[in-house]
Structures are given as structure tokens and as C-alpha cells.
Amino acid sequence: MIGIAFVLFVQCINALRQAAIVWRENPRWQLLSYTCLMFSLGTGYITTNTSYKILAFTTHRNFPGGPVTWVNVNYSSPTTLASNTCAVVSSWTADALLLYRCFIIYRSSYKFVRLILAFPVILFIGEVASGILLLIQVSHSPSTIWNSVDLGLPYFALAAACNVTITLTIATPLLLHRRRLLKTFGRGNSYSEPYTSAAAILVESSAVYDIVAVVFIGTYAAKSDVSHLFLSTLSQVQVIAPFLVILRVARKQAWTSTTREDIASATMNRFDHTGQSSVNREVIRLHSQRARSTSKLGSDFVPLDLSIAQLHSNRLGGPSSPISPISKAGSDSIPYDP
């Protein structure tokens, strides 16, 4: 897994270096710093955890009770504490990126819709608090994450719940938008495919991260030895998942607050070459510009809250068709004078 993380890390750095210097929603230096931080945490966990296990099974292999007993007795050592800290902090930073992506996707939605984000925020705060308490507890021997179930289980449960909630929060609007696009334009839309494909939705929502986290929490709650294997896997998956998102952001394939109107504008431009009314095309352009300006001010305007089917109907009607308002805000603020 560390090899996959390293390859993705190199790809992210190269993609970010070749990208534009500054983006409105994702400044390059912030993404570069975040990528380096995540790789450092993932590498730090593997390095410290491996070195500690090497000491247990080589230098202290004859310890009374065996290497496992030596690990438990010395679990509060600086090496183990550093390993646990890297794992917990990398979980926080991975969830923080996904939470930030939620705010990006929901930025242009109505205020009452954005209230949905309060739930994952509360879970994230609980995850951070329980993680701090867990690190404090395991720093005092003979407590370990395997016998401190009173704090270990709540932390991992909150982390898994936070991951699943954020995944559903991200995937739901993407799936709804994909359904509307397929219903309106059918399959094979080259403009929307990078954003609405099944692979794109899985990457954007970090579904793989959730699957591993749920499997681990099940084995951990059952006190199975298999949980040791899944914990090491989870520590790398929670680094790989953000790298996949950052790679899409660097290649400008990730969902932003203006993706909906950008897809519709590009699609309508294509339709213009096949007979769409230039009047409708102009309304799309003006509406898209207003959507961008109002989203910066944090208004209640929903850019293109998918009246794409309505626009598609106008296209079929030709130049003589009446221009239906794209939204209430759009019809009030974009007068058309023939």
C-alpha cells in the first residue's frame, strides 16, 4: 500500500506543478502543502510502526511472554506514540478534506440545504475529541488501543460514522445530477462524463475509504486478530483516498460550486451547432455569469438548479419558443428585450 501511496503522491505533485498557479477554490500552494503533509503522516506511521515491530521480534524476541507481551508492556514508548499520532492525525486530515469538498459542492445550494452539513461537522468534532482522549489514554502504560476499548471503540466508531456520512453527503447530489443529465441528454455526454461517471462519484466520495473503515470497525469491535491487518491497511487507504481527490482537482476534473452551470453551458453550446436557438444560448451565458457572481457572495441562488430539461425543451421549440425562466432569481434579474 505504501507503494501505491508513493506513486499517487508523485502524480499529485507533478499535476499540481503543471496546473494553474492559483484557483479560486483550491489554491495550488495549499494543495501542495496538504499533499506533502498526508504523505509524511502515512510514511511516518509505516516507519515507526515497522521499526517497533522489528525491535519486538528481533532484539526482544526472548522477552518473557514473547514479542507481543513486550509490545504491550512498552506501548507507551515514544515510537509507538508517534505511530499512533500519525494514524489519528492522518484520519483527521483525510476527513477534513472530504468535509471541505462537501462545502465546495454545496456552496451554491439554498441555505436550508446547506444545513445538512451540520451533521458531518458535529461528527468530525466528536472524532477529533475522542481521538485526543484515546492518544492520552494509550500514552500511559499498560493501555493499548487493543485493550482500551472504552475509548478505542468510540473513536473508531465516530471516525467510521463521519466517513460514511460525508460520503453520502457528497455522493447524493452527484447521483441526482447524474440521473437528471442521463434523463435529459442520454448517455455518452462527453462534457458531463468526467464528473458523473460511477468512477468519478466513487473517488469524489472516497467510498473505498469507507469500506475499509467499516470492515475494520467490525473486526475491532469483535476483538478479532484480523483487525491488526485492517488497521495497517486503513492507515494507508486514508492517505490514498485524498490523493485521488487531489489528483482530480489538479486535472480540473473534480466537482466545484460552478460545475453544474459549466456542464450545461458547454452542452448548450454543442446543441447550438445542431439548431438550438441563439436566444436560449445567450440566456444560458448570462445566467451562468450571474450564478458565478452570486455564488461568490454566498446568496441563496442555485445555479442551474437543473432546469436543463426546460432548456432542452426550449431547444426543441426553436427560435420562436418562449423563453422559460431558468429560475426565479434568473427570471427576475436577466430581462430579455427582443
UniProtKB/TrEMBL annotation:
Domain of life: Eukaryota
Signal peptide: 1-15
Bilayer-crossing regions: 112-136, 156-176, 197-222, 228-250
Region (Disordered): 317-338
Keyword annotations of the record: Membrane, Signal, Transmembrane, Transmembrane helix
Protein name: Integral membrane protein
Organism: Crucibulum laeve
